Amino acid sequence: MTEMFRLENVWHRYSEGETVERVALKDVTLSIKQGEFVAVIGHNGSGKSTLAKHLNALLLPTEGCVLVKGWDTRDAKHLWDIRQTAGMVFQNPDNQIVATAVEEDVAFGPENLGIPAAEIRRRVDEALKIVGMTEYRRAAPHLLSGGQKQRIAIAGVLAMQPEAMILDEPTAMLDPSGRREVMETVLRLNRQEGITIVYITHFMEEAVQAGRVVVMDGGQKVLDGVPREVFTQVAELRRLGLDVPQVTELAQHLARRGIKLQPGILTVEEMEAELCRYVSQM
Ligand SMILES: Nc1ncnc2c1ncn2[C@@H]1O[C@H](COP(=O)(O)OP(=O)(O)OP(=O)(O)O)[C@@H](O)[C@H]1O
Ligand SMILES: [Mg+2]
Asked: How, if at all, do strands 212-217 and 37-41 pair?
């Protein structure tokens, strides 16, 4: 598979005044292939957003290099190729809405690219369909729910036809149903449209649905593997100030009471299946 993102020994230092420097990324090496769905987790200030902003040249490395489809992000002549390849979705949907009607909002990005009107209309229709918001095309964005607004923001990025999407805590401000809507939309983008996803989240129940989980701590990449590998390291995750999925924790509590289930339970469905199996053997 071809490589979408490559970080090689990336350091990032924010300068604060003349003398103070804050090291936000420390020697991060990471490769993300086309079509992957990678969740990035880590406690506050661990460097997740800084990492995300390196993936579409919003920030440049202080040391090391970042390649997007082989283009070095420091190479100014590929800036627009990079920005078009890797679209960004942020936490606050209200800050991402620019127009007074949904379809105008989704059209905003391609209009700025100078794309012909007929093609823009086609892209807007398609993007709204993919995020399941076609019936709201003429609605006023500010009247929508948080989850719907975030799906509109995603449609706006989709209309630019990116190959990858980077989402920095897109569900942080949403209620549980909004979070589910957004997560389902992003999973669909990955599975049906083949879009590479880098998904930053504080919700472990979201991270378990990714194909791969990267854990950041103090600006370093400390764990990197499939969800089952990462989330079964309960003690290590706790040490890093992170939660494990509730059902994983429940399995641990049950084990202490002598109810030994298969290790590595991550989802409610897996717990259900495993409890049924356990009970049927009693
Ligand atoms: N513009 C900035 N100037 C100076 N320091 C910054 C700046 N942005 C972030 N930092 C610092 O860099 C470190 C990493 O921040 P970053 O925002 O990447 O973390 P994060 O993992 O996204 O945190 P959160 O979970 O709170 O979003 C932190 O110590 C933060 O205080
Ligand atoms: Mg952040």
From this structure: parallel
In ligand 1, the atom with minimum distance to the C-alpha of 42 is: 21
Asked whether residue 208 falls in the same domain as residue 90, the answer is yes
CA of 46 to the centre of ligand 1 (A): 7
Query: Same domain, yes or no, for 253 and 274?
Result: yes
Q: Are residues 120 and 153 in the same domain?
A: yes
254 and 134 within one domain: no
Q: What is the pLDDT of residues 137-163, one digit of tens each?
A: 999 999 999 999 999 999 999 999 999
Question: Do residues 181 and 252 share a domain?
Answer: no
Q: Residue with the nearest Cα to atom 3 of ligand 1?
A: 14
Domain shared by 278 and 163, yes or no: no
The closest-lying atom of ligand 1 relative to the alpha carbon of residue 219 is 14
Q: Ligand 1 pocket by C-beta < 6 Å: which residues?
A: 14, 16, 22, 24, 42, 44-50
Tens digits of per-residue pLDDT, 20-79?
A: 889 999 999 999 999 999 999 999 999 999 999 999 999 999 999 999 999 999 999 999
Residue type, 146: G
Domain count, the chain: 2
Residue 146: which domain range?
3-236
Helix ranges, the chain (H): 48-54, 79-85, 102-112, 117-130, 146-158, 176-193, 204-207, 227-231, 234-239, 246-256, 268-280
Residue 97's pLDDT is: 87
DSSP β-ladder status, 164-168 and 86-89: parallel
Q: Among 15, 16, 50, 88, which residue has the most ligand 1 atoms within 8 Å of its CB, making it the best to mutate?
A: 50
Residues 134, 265: one domain? no
pTM over 0.70: yes
Compute the distance between CA of residue 235 and CA of residue 257 in angstroms, rounded to an integer: 19
> How close is the Cα of 117 to the center of ligand 1, in Å?
39
